[in-house]
Amino acid sequence: MANALLGCIADDFTGATDLANMLVRGGMRTVQTIGVPVAGTHIEADAIVVALKSRTISAEEAVRQSLEALDWLRTQGCRQYYFKYCSTFDSTDKGNIGPVADALLDALGENFTIACPAFPENGRTIYRGNLFVGEVLLSESGMENHPLTPMTDPNLVRVLQRQTKSKVGLIRYDIVAKGVDAIRAYIDELKEDGVRLAIADAVCDADLYTLGKACRDLALVTGGSGIALGLPQNFHSADLLVYSGEAGDLPKIDGEAVVLAGSASKATNAQVAAWRTSKPSFHIDPIAISRGDDVVNSAVEFARSYLNKREPVLIYATSSPEDVRAVQKKLGVEKAGHLVEEALATIARRLRDIGVRKFVVAGGETSGAVVQALNVRTLRIGPQIDPGVPATQSVGANDKAPLALALKSGNFGTTDFFTKALKAL
Ligand code: ADP
Protein backbone atom coordinates (compact mmCIF):
# COMPACT_ATOMS: atom_id res chain seq x y z
CA MET A 1 0.00 0.00 0.00
CA ALA A 2 1.45 3.29 -1.08
CA ASN A 3 1.15 6.39 1.07
CA ALA A 4 -0.33 9.67 -0.12
CA LEU A 5 2.18 12.46 -0.73
CA LEU A 6 0.07 15.55 -0.16
CA GLY A 7 -2.59 15.82 2.56
CA CYS A 8 -5.01 18.73 2.18
CA ILE A 9 -7.60 20.31 4.43
CA ALA A 10 -10.19 22.50 2.70
CA ASP A 11 -12.53 24.86 4.53
CA ASP A 12 -15.50 24.13 2.27
CA PHE A 13 -16.85 21.49 -0.07
CA THR A 14 -16.71 23.07 -3.52
CA GLY A 15 -13.34 24.64 -2.62
CA ALA A 16 -12.07 21.15 -1.90
CA THR A 17 -13.24 19.94 -5.30
CA ASP A 18 -11.62 22.92 -6.98
CA LEU A 19 -8.29 22.07 -5.30
CA ALA A 20 -8.63 18.37 -6.11
CA ASN A 21 -9.27 19.26 -9.73
CA MET A 22 -6.07 21.33 -9.78
CA LEU A 23 -3.99 18.50 -8.32
CA VAL A 24 -5.31 16.03 -10.92
CA ARG A 25 -4.31 18.52 -13.61
CA GLY A 26 -0.83 18.44 -12.04
CA GLY A 27 -0.69 14.66 -12.47
CA MET A 28 -1.62 13.56 -8.94
CA ARG A 29 -4.28 10.87 -8.48
CA THR A 30 -6.58 12.59 -6.01
CA VAL A 31 -9.34 11.53 -3.64
CA GLN A 32 -11.65 13.91 -1.80
CA THR A 33 -13.30 12.91 1.45
CA ILE A 34 -16.39 14.57 2.85
CA GLY A 35 -15.46 15.24 6.44
CA VAL A 36 -12.71 13.35 8.25
CA PRO A 37 -12.73 9.59 7.52
CA VAL A 38 -13.02 7.20 10.44
CA ALA A 39 -9.79 6.07 12.06
CA GLY A 40 -8.25 3.10 10.31
CA THR A 41 -9.38 4.12 6.80
CA HIS A 42 -6.56 3.90 4.25
CA ILE A 43 -6.92 5.74 0.95
CA GLU A 44 -4.86 4.91 -2.14
CA ALA A 45 -4.03 8.21 -3.84
CA ASP A 46 -1.19 10.67 -4.45
CA ALA A 47 -3.18 13.47 -2.83
CA ILE A 48 -6.09 13.44 -0.40
CA VAL A 49 -8.33 16.45 0.16
CA VAL A 50 -10.45 16.43 3.30
CA ALA A 51 -13.45 18.71 2.77
CA LEU A 52 -14.61 20.46 5.93
CA LYS A 53 -17.35 23.07 6.35
CA SER A 54 -15.25 25.31 8.56
CA ARG A 55 -15.11 28.66 6.78
CA THR A 56 -17.75 30.46 8.80
CA ILE A 57 -17.96 28.47 12.03
CA SER A 58 -16.22 29.69 15.22
CA ALA A 59 -12.41 29.80 15.08
CA GLU A 60 -12.23 27.39 17.99
CA GLU A 61 -14.36 24.80 16.21
CA ALA A 62 -12.55 25.35 12.89
CA VAL A 63 -9.24 24.68 14.65
CA ARG A 64 -10.62 21.55 16.29
CA GLN A 65 -11.93 20.12 13.02
CA SER A 66 -8.78 21.05 11.09
CA LEU A 67 -6.55 19.35 13.68
CA GLU A 68 -8.74 16.27 13.54
CA ALA A 69 -8.30 16.24 9.75
CA LEU A 70 -4.53 16.69 10.13
CA ASP A 71 -4.34 13.84 12.63
CA TRP A 72 -6.09 11.52 10.20
CA LEU A 73 -3.98 12.70 7.23
CA ARG A 74 -0.84 11.99 9.23
CA THR A 75 -1.95 8.36 9.52
CA GLN A 76 -1.78 8.29 5.69
CA GLY A 77 1.94 9.10 5.85
CA CYS A 78 1.71 12.32 3.79
CA ARG A 79 4.96 14.19 3.14
CA GLN A 80 3.43 17.65 2.96
CA TYR A 81 0.22 19.28 4.16
CA TYR A 82 -1.93 21.96 2.63
CA PHE A 83 -4.58 24.23 4.08
CA LYS A 84 -6.99 25.46 1.39
CA TYR A 85 -9.22 28.52 1.77
CA CYS A 86 -11.03 30.79 -0.66
CA SER A 87 -9.15 32.79 -3.29
CA THR A 88 -10.87 35.89 -1.92
CA PHE A 89 -9.45 35.07 1.55
CA ASP A 90 -13.01 34.84 2.98
CA SER A 91 -12.65 35.28 6.73
CA THR A 92 -13.35 37.72 9.55
CA ASP A 93 -11.01 39.46 12.01
CA LYS A 94 -11.76 36.60 14.41
CA GLY A 95 -10.52 33.98 11.92
CA ASN A 96 -10.47 31.35 10.63
CA ILE A 97 -7.43 31.42 8.37
CA GLY A 98 -4.91 32.71 10.96
CA PRO A 99 -5.99 30.48 13.87
CA VAL A 100 -6.14 27.34 11.71
CA ALA A 101 -2.75 28.01 10.08
CA ASP A 102 -1.22 28.62 13.54
CA ALA A 103 -2.72 25.44 14.98
CA LEU A 104 -1.53 23.33 12.04
CA LEU A 105 2.01 24.76 12.32
CA ASP A 106 2.05 24.02 16.06
CA ALA A 107 0.78 20.48 15.55
CA LEU A 108 3.44 19.84 12.90
CA GLY A 109 6.17 21.39 15.07
CA GLU A 110 6.93 23.95 12.34
CA ASN A 111 7.55 27.67 12.55
CA PHE A 112 6.83 29.01 9.07
CA THR A 113 4.38 28.82 6.19
CA ILE A 114 3.19 30.99 3.35
CA ALA A 115 -0.33 32.25 2.68
CA CYS A 116 -1.15 32.75 -0.98
CA PRO A 117 -4.75 32.83 -2.20
CA ALA A 118 -3.75 34.06 -5.69
CA PHE A 119 -5.59 32.38 -8.60
CA PRO A 120 -4.71 34.39 -11.73
CA GLU A 121 -6.82 32.12 -14.02
CA ASN A 122 -9.84 33.40 -12.08
CA GLY A 123 -8.60 36.98 -11.79
CA ARG A 124 -7.27 36.78 -8.22
CA THR A 125 -3.80 38.34 -8.06
CA ILE A 126 -1.70 39.69 -5.17
CA TYR A 127 0.70 42.61 -5.44
CA ARG A 128 2.48 44.17 -2.45
CA GLY A 129 0.18 42.16 -0.24
CA ASN A 130 -2.97 43.63 -1.82
CA LEU A 131 -5.50 41.21 -3.27
CA PHE A 132 -7.10 42.15 -6.58
CA VAL A 133 -10.24 40.59 -8.03
CA GLY A 134 -10.02 41.27 -11.75
CA GLU A 135 -9.15 44.96 -12.12
CA VAL A 136 -10.25 46.09 -8.66
CA LEU A 137 -9.11 45.70 -5.08
CA LEU A 138 -10.79 42.99 -3.00
CA SER A 139 -12.55 45.68 -0.95
CA GLU A 140 -14.23 47.07 -4.09
CA SER A 141 -15.07 43.72 -5.68
CA GLY A 142 -18.45 43.14 -4.04
CA MET A 143 -16.77 41.00 -1.37
CA GLU A 144 -17.06 44.02 0.96
CA ASN A 145 -20.81 43.21 1.08
CA HIS A 146 -20.54 39.47 1.66
CA PRO A 147 -23.19 38.50 4.26
CA LEU A 148 -20.87 36.27 6.34
CA THR A 149 -17.29 37.31 5.58
CA PRO A 150 -17.24 40.94 4.38
CA MET A 151 -13.76 41.79 3.07
CA THR A 152 -13.30 45.54 3.54
CA ASP A 153 -9.48 45.62 3.65
CA PRO A 154 -7.60 44.49 0.52
CA ASN A 155 -4.25 44.25 2.30
CA LEU A 156 -3.82 40.61 3.28
CA VAL A 157 -0.87 41.25 5.60
CA ARG A 158 -3.13 43.47 7.71
CA VAL A 159 -6.13 41.12 7.37
CA LEU A 160 -4.13 38.09 8.47
CA GLN A 161 -2.31 40.00 11.23
CA ARG A 162 -5.66 40.83 12.83
CA GLN A 163 -6.42 37.10 13.06
CA THR A 164 -3.21 35.88 14.66
CA LYS A 165 -0.62 36.54 17.35
CA SER A 166 2.04 35.20 14.98
CA LYS A 167 4.10 37.81 13.14
CA VAL A 168 2.86 38.19 9.55
CA GLY A 169 5.27 39.13 6.75
CA LEU A 170 5.24 39.60 2.99
CA ILE A 171 7.18 37.94 0.16
CA ARG A 172 7.10 40.86 -2.27
CA TYR A 173 6.77 40.50 -5.98
CA ASP A 174 10.36 41.74 -6.40
CA ILE A 175 11.58 38.63 -4.59
CA VAL A 176 9.16 36.24 -6.31
CA ALA A 177 10.32 37.55 -9.70
CA LYS A 178 13.94 36.72 -8.84
CA GLY A 179 13.10 33.03 -8.64
CA VAL A 180 13.19 29.99 -6.39
CA ASP A 181 16.57 30.57 -4.70
CA ALA A 182 15.80 34.19 -3.91
CA ILE A 183 12.47 33.21 -2.35
CA ARG A 184 14.08 30.48 -0.24
CA ALA A 185 16.78 32.87 0.98
CA TYR A 186 14.14 35.46 1.80
CA ILE A 187 12.08 32.91 3.72
CA ASP A 188 15.18 32.27 5.86
CA GLU A 189 15.44 36.02 6.52
CA LEU A 190 11.76 36.23 7.43
CA LYS A 191 12.12 33.31 9.83
CA GLU A 192 15.09 34.97 11.52
CA ASP A 193 12.94 38.02 11.88
CA GLY A 194 10.33 35.97 13.74
CA VAL A 195 7.78 35.87 10.90
CA ARG A 196 5.62 32.74 11.03
CA LEU A 197 3.10 33.48 8.28
CA ALA A 198 4.00 35.28 5.05
CA ILE A 199 1.60 36.49 2.39
CA ALA A 200 3.19 35.84 -1.03
CA ASP A 201 2.66 38.12 -4.02
CA ALA A 202 1.71 36.37 -7.28
CA VAL A 203 0.27 37.88 -10.45
CA CYS A 204 0.49 35.03 -12.97
CA ASP A 205 0.68 31.24 -13.11
CA ALA A 206 4.46 31.38 -13.58
CA ASP A 207 4.71 33.00 -10.12
CA LEU A 208 2.67 30.16 -8.64
CA TYR A 209 4.99 27.56 -10.21
CA THR A 210 8.01 29.42 -8.81
CA LEU A 211 6.44 29.71 -5.36
CA GLY A 212 5.43 26.05 -5.49
CA LYS A 213 9.03 25.04 -6.09
CA ALA A 214 10.25 27.35 -3.34
CA CYS A 215 7.80 25.67 -0.93
CA ARG A 216 9.21 22.19 -1.57
CA ASP A 217 10.57 21.80 1.95
CA LEU A 218 7.73 23.42 3.88
CA ALA A 219 5.72 20.90 5.88
CA LEU A 220 2.67 23.14 5.53
CA VAL A 221 1.55 25.31 2.63
CA THR A 222 -1.59 27.46 2.80
CA GLY A 223 -3.47 29.10 -0.03
CA GLY A 224 -6.28 29.01 -2.54
CA SER A 225 -6.31 26.33 -5.21
CA GLY A 226 -3.92 28.34 -7.43
CA ILE A 227 -0.76 27.70 -5.44
CA ALA A 228 -1.50 23.97 -5.81
CA LEU A 229 -0.47 24.36 -9.45
CA GLY A 230 3.15 24.45 -8.37
CA LEU A 231 3.26 21.60 -5.85
CA PRO A 232 2.92 18.41 -7.97
CA GLN A 233 6.14 19.26 -9.85
CA ASN A 234 8.14 18.86 -6.60
CA PHE A 235 6.93 15.28 -6.27
CA HIS A 236 7.59 14.66 -9.96
CA SER A 237 11.16 15.97 -9.66
CA ALA A 238 11.78 13.80 -6.62
CA ASP A 239 10.53 10.75 -8.59
CA LEU A 240 7.80 10.22 -6.04
CA LEU A 241 4.95 10.36 -8.54
CA VAL A 242 5.35 7.07 -10.30
CA TYR A 243 1.87 6.44 -11.70
CA SER A 244 2.13 6.11 -15.47
CA GLY A 245 -1.52 6.56 -16.56
CA GLU A 246 -3.63 9.71 -16.58
CA ALA A 247 -4.18 10.93 -13.01
CA GLY A 248 -7.86 11.57 -13.75
CA ASP A 249 -8.64 8.19 -15.30
CA LEU A 250 -11.82 6.70 -13.85
CA PRO A 251 -13.34 3.28 -14.60
CA LYS A 252 -16.48 3.32 -16.73
CA ILE A 253 -19.79 3.23 -14.89
CA ASP A 254 -22.95 1.86 -16.50
CA GLY A 255 -26.42 2.96 -15.52
CA GLU A 256 -28.99 5.67 -15.96
CA ALA A 257 -28.33 9.38 -15.44
CA VAL A 258 -30.21 12.37 -14.04
CA VAL A 259 -29.59 16.11 -13.61
CA LEU A 260 -30.68 17.77 -10.35
CA ALA A 261 -30.56 21.55 -9.99
CA GLY A 262 -31.14 23.34 -6.70
CA SER A 263 -29.07 26.41 -7.39
CA ALA A 264 -30.76 29.68 -8.28
CA SER A 265 -27.61 31.39 -9.50
CA LYS A 266 -27.34 33.16 -12.82
CA ALA A 267 -25.21 30.46 -14.46
CA THR A 268 -27.54 27.65 -13.35
CA ASN A 269 -30.59 29.57 -14.61
CA ALA A 270 -28.92 29.79 -18.05
CA GLN A 271 -28.01 26.08 -17.95
CA VAL A 272 -31.58 25.09 -17.04
CA ALA A 273 -33.00 27.30 -19.81
CA ALA A 274 -30.61 25.79 -22.37
CA TRP A 275 -31.57 22.23 -21.38
CA ARG A 276 -35.30 22.95 -21.47
CA THR A 277 -35.25 24.06 -25.11
CA SER A 278 -35.04 20.42 -26.24
CA LYS A 279 -34.92 18.00 -23.32
CA PRO A 280 -37.38 16.70 -20.70
CA SER A 281 -37.54 18.50 -17.36
CA PHE A 282 -39.61 18.57 -14.18
CA HIS A 283 -39.99 21.67 -12.02
CA ILE A 284 -39.95 21.44 -8.23
CA ASP A 285 -42.18 24.09 -6.69
CA PRO A 286 -41.35 24.79 -3.03
CA ILE A 287 -44.85 26.19 -2.43
CA ALA A 288 -46.39 22.92 -3.63
CA ILE A 289 -44.12 20.97 -1.27
CA SER A 290 -45.12 23.19 1.64
CA ARG A 291 -48.80 22.58 0.74
CA GLY A 292 -48.19 18.88 1.20
CA ASP A 293 -48.27 17.83 -2.49
CA ASP A 294 -46.23 14.68 -3.12
CA VAL A 295 -43.78 16.48 -5.37
CA VAL A 296 -41.02 13.95 -4.72
CA ASN A 297 -43.12 11.07 -5.96
CA SER A 298 -44.26 12.96 -9.06
CA ALA A 299 -40.65 13.82 -9.90
CA VAL A 300 -39.50 10.22 -9.46
CA GLU A 301 -42.35 8.91 -11.63
CA PHE A 302 -41.57 11.51 -14.28
CA ALA A 303 -37.90 10.47 -14.32
CA ARG A 304 -38.83 6.79 -14.36
CA SER A 305 -40.99 7.19 -17.48
CA TYR A 306 -37.96 8.55 -19.35
CA LEU A 307 -35.42 6.18 -17.78
CA ASN A 308 -37.22 3.34 -19.54
CA LYS A 309 -36.31 5.11 -22.79
CA ARG A 310 -32.76 5.69 -21.47
CA GLU A 311 -33.28 9.43 -21.67
CA PRO A 312 -31.90 11.56 -18.83
CA VAL A 313 -34.18 14.21 -17.37
CA LEU A 314 -33.57 17.44 -15.46
CA ILE A 315 -35.33 17.94 -12.13
CA TYR A 316 -34.94 21.53 -11.03
CA ALA A 317 -36.00 24.05 -8.41
CA THR A 318 -34.01 26.76 -10.17
CA SER A 319 -36.06 29.94 -10.63
CA SER A 320 -35.49 33.59 -11.46
CA PRO A 321 -34.28 35.83 -8.59
CA GLU A 322 -37.76 37.44 -8.40
CA ASP A 323 -39.50 34.06 -8.07
CA VAL A 324 -37.02 32.88 -5.45
CA ARG A 325 -37.57 36.08 -3.46
CA ALA A 326 -41.34 35.62 -3.65
CA VAL A 327 -41.03 32.03 -2.38
CA GLN A 328 -38.64 33.11 0.36
CA LYS A 329 -41.04 35.86 1.42
CA LYS A 330 -43.83 33.34 1.73
CA LEU A 331 -41.93 30.48 3.40
CA GLY A 332 -38.85 32.12 4.92
CA VAL A 333 -35.35 31.85 3.38
CA GLU A 334 -34.21 28.93 5.49
CA LYS A 335 -37.42 26.90 5.21
CA ALA A 336 -37.59 27.35 1.43
CA GLY A 337 -33.96 26.26 1.04
CA HIS A 338 -34.45 23.31 3.35
CA LEU A 339 -37.61 22.08 1.57
CA VAL A 340 -35.89 22.17 -1.81
CA GLU A 341 -32.68 20.54 -0.60
CA GLU A 342 -34.59 17.78 1.18
CA ALA A 343 -36.81 17.12 -1.84
CA LEU A 344 -33.87 16.87 -4.25
CA ALA A 345 -31.91 14.70 -1.82
CA THR A 346 -34.83 12.28 -1.42
CA ILE A 347 -35.37 12.19 -5.18
CA ALA A 348 -31.67 11.35 -5.65
CA ARG A 349 -31.88 8.48 -3.17
CA ARG A 350 -35.04 7.04 -4.72
CA LEU A 351 -33.62 7.29 -8.22
CA ARG A 352 -30.46 5.52 -7.09
CA ASP A 353 -32.63 2.76 -5.70
CA ILE A 354 -34.23 2.23 -9.14
CA GLY A 355 -30.91 2.09 -10.98
CA VAL A 356 -29.68 5.65 -11.60
CA ARG A 357 -25.88 5.66 -11.32
CA LYS A 358 -24.93 9.07 -12.70
CA PHE A 359 -25.85 12.35 -11.04
CA VAL A 360 -25.16 15.85 -12.27
CA VAL A 361 -25.95 18.29 -9.44
CA ALA A 362 -26.05 22.09 -9.55
CA GLY A 363 -25.65 24.07 -6.32
CA GLY A 364 -23.09 23.96 -3.50
CA GLU A 365 -25.55 23.36 -0.65
CA THR A 366 -27.64 21.16 -2.91
CA SER A 367 -24.61 19.00 -3.75
CA GLY A 368 -23.89 18.63 -0.04
CA ALA A 369 -27.46 17.46 0.63
CA VAL A 370 -27.48 15.02 -2.31
CA VAL A 371 -24.10 13.51 -1.49
CA GLN A 372 -25.22 13.00 2.10
CA ALA A 373 -28.48 11.36 1.03
CA LEU A 374 -26.55 9.00 -1.25
CA ASN A 375 -24.22 8.22 1.66
CA VAL A 376 -21.18 9.21 -0.39
CA ARG A 377 -18.18 9.89 1.87
CA THR A 378 -15.31 9.64 -0.60
CA LEU A 379 -14.86 10.80 -4.19
CA ARG A 380 -12.17 9.90 -6.68
CA ILE A 381 -11.48 12.92 -8.85
CA GLY A 382 -11.56 12.55 -12.62
CA PRO A 383 -10.93 14.85 -15.57
CA GLN A 384 -12.10 18.44 -15.58
CA ILE A 385 -15.49 19.14 -17.17
CA ASP A 386 -15.33 22.92 -16.77
CA PRO A 387 -12.89 25.02 -14.68
CA GLY A 388 -13.29 24.01 -11.03
CA VAL A 389 -15.68 21.12 -11.81
CA PRO A 390 -14.25 17.64 -12.36
CA ALA A 391 -16.05 14.38 -13.06
CA THR A 392 -15.95 12.25 -9.88
CA GLN A 393 -16.82 8.76 -8.69
CA SER A 394 -17.90 7.61 -5.27
CA VAL A 395 -15.67 5.11 -3.54
CA GLY A 396 -17.00 2.41 -1.23
CA ALA A 397 -20.32 4.08 -0.41
CA ASN A 398 -22.28 1.63 1.66
CA ASP A 399 -21.16 -1.32 -0.46
CA LYS A 400 -23.41 -0.04 -3.24
CA ALA A 401 -22.13 0.08 -6.82
CA PRO A 402 -20.03 3.22 -7.38
CA LEU A 403 -21.80 6.34 -8.57
CA ALA A 404 -20.59 8.89 -11.10
CA LEU A 405 -21.09 12.47 -9.91
CA ALA A 406 -20.54 15.96 -11.28
CA LEU A 407 -21.06 18.48 -8.48
CA LYS A 408 -21.05 22.11 -9.47
CA SER A 409 -21.37 25.20 -7.32
CA GLY A 410 -23.89 27.71 -8.62
CA ASN A 411 -21.86 30.01 -10.78
CA PHE A 412 -19.61 27.43 -12.43
CA GLY A 413 -19.93 25.94 -15.88
CA THR A 414 -20.82 26.98 -19.41
CA THR A 415 -24.43 27.14 -20.64
CA ASP A 416 -24.30 23.57 -22.01
CA PHE A 417 -22.74 22.24 -18.78
CA PHE A 418 -25.43 19.60 -18.10
CA THR A 419 -25.03 17.94 -21.49
CA LYS A 420 -21.24 18.14 -21.27
CA ALA A 421 -21.24 16.67 -17.76
CA LEU A 422 -23.49 13.76 -18.78
CA LYS A 423 -21.12 12.97 -21.61
CA ALA A 424 -18.12 13.13 -19.24
CA LEU A 425 -19.76 10.77 -16.74
P1 ADP B 1 -25.43 27.93 -5.21
O1 ADP B 1 -24.22 27.10 -5.37
O2 ADP B 1 -25.93 28.52 -6.49
O3 ADP B 1 -25.32 28.93 -4.09
P2 ADP B 1 -26.87 26.25 -3.40
O4 ADP B 1 -27.44 24.90 -3.63
O5 ADP B 1 -25.65 26.37 -2.55
O6 ADP B 1 -26.62 26.90 -4.82
O7 ADP B 1 -27.93 27.21 -2.75
C1 ADP B 1 -29.15 27.48 -3.31
C2 ADP B 1 -30.21 27.50 -2.21
O8 ADP B 1 -31.41 28.01 -2.76
C3 ADP B 1 -30.53 26.11 -1.71
O9 ADP B 1 -30.72 26.14 -0.32
C4 ADP B 1 -31.81 25.76 -2.43
O10 ADP B 1 -32.57 24.82 -1.73
C5 ADP B 1 -32.48 27.11 -2.51
N1 ADP B 1 -33.44 27.20 -3.62
C6 ADP B 1 -33.32 26.67 -4.86
N2 ADP B 1 -34.37 26.96 -5.62
C7 ADP B 1 -35.20 27.68 -4.86
C8 ADP B 1 -36.47 28.27 -5.09
N3 ADP B 1 -37.11 28.14 -6.27
N4 ADP B 1 -37.04 28.97 -4.11
C9 ADP B 1 -36.41 29.10 -2.92
N5 ADP B 1 -35.21 28.57 -2.63
C10 ADP B 1 -34.61 27.86 -3.58
From TrEMBL:
Pfam families in the record: NBD_C (PF17042), SBD_N (PF07005)
Alphabetical UniProt keywords: ATP-binding, Carbohydrate metabolism, Kinase, Nucleotide-binding, Transferase
GO terms, molecular function: ATP binding; kinase activity
SUPFAM superfamilies: YgbK-like (SSF142764)
Domain of life: Bacteria
UniProt catalytic activity: 3-dehydro-L-erythronate + ATP = 3-dehydro-4-O-phospho-L-erythronate + ADP + H(+); 3-dehydro-D-erythronate + ATP = 3-dehydro-4-O-phospho-D-erythronate + ADP + H(+)
Classification via InterPro entries: 4-carb_acid_sugar_kinase_N, 4-carb_acid_sugar_kinase_N_sf, NBD_C, NBD_C_sf, OtnK
Residue span, Four-carbon acid sugar kinase nucleotide binding domain: 258-418
Major enzyme class: transferase
Entry keyword annotation includes Ribosomal protein: no
EC number per UniProt: 2.7.1.217
Residue stretches making up the Four-carbon acid sugar kinase N-terminal domain: 6-230
Role summary: Catalyzes the ATP-dependent phosphorylation of 3-oxo-tetronate to 3-oxo-tetronate 4-phosphate.
Family that this chain belongs to: Belongs to the four-carbon acid sugar kinase family.
Name this protein carries in UniProt: 3-oxo-tetronate kinase
Species for this entry: Paraburkholderia atlantica
